[in-house]
DNA sequence: AAAAACTACAACTAAATAGGAGTTTTTATT
DNA sequence: AATAAAAACTCCTATTTAGTTGTAGTTTTT
């Protein structure tokens, strides 16, 4: 019936991921991490002047979307950009933007 | 500050567009139009068994996102796929899907 | 026990959807 | 020319859904 199958779930997934990234706080986190190798949660929520729980929530979203990675060292968890994730993101934008 | 500028508006725009496409009724409309050259609004809302106003609304969304085009002939408005729009859409998905 | 981060929950906000009613545009009829 | 009918569009409202924030409580490590 359909020449080329359009997978609604795939589209929904990508749309959701892009929209998840497109949030003021999360864009700020990404920007900060482009200049610094890695940051722990305390540093991030202090710099952004938001609640700890809020920072944790946003960080988790970015990590689940494959934008960030984290490693635990002692009591702290350090977040950093996942290699190539930004390049992929920009490539995605270039392909999709008409 | 940011090595590569991330345009939040661009991301939001693409996310919104993809999400607009990812709707059951609109996917059905796209699928139907992949098999038929063009269809008028009455045919579409009858086939999908939805309200006329609803069909009009969904068609307008798809047109505004550059997926469909329309032409008026007499009392009817005929909708069809905008050339290359589906190819672009699928290319977009391939680039963004990880 | 204390520090750091995560998780869960509830309240609030914003966006999307569907339905009904009314409006515009075009054609047909008298 | 006036009116009616068909087709599609627009507007408004109610409902639903998704996302955000904040508080409180829990887990993990020192």
Summarize the SSE layout with pairings.
2 copies of one chain form a homodimer.
Chain A: H1 8-21, H2 24-35, E1 39-40, H3 41-48, H4 52-64, E2 68-73, E3 76-81, H5 85-96
Antiparallel strand pairs in A: 1-3, 2-3
Helix pairs in contact in A: 3-4
The structure holds a DNA duplex (30 and 30 nucleotides).
Task: Describe this structure as you would to a colleague.
2 copies of one chain form a homodimer. With 98 residues, chain A is of the alpha+beta class. Chain A has a single domain (8-91), classed as Winged helix-like DNA-binding domain superfamily/Winged helix DNA-binding domain (Arc Repressor Mutant, subunit A, Orthogonal Bundle), CATH 1.10.10.10. Chain A contains 5 helices and 3 strands, in the order ααβααββα. Chain A has a 3-stranded antiparallel sheet with strand order 1-3-2. The relative contact order of chain A is 0.14. The mean pLDDT of chain A is 90. The interface between A and B is large, with 37 and 37 residues. The structure holds a DNA duplex (30 and 30 nucleotides).
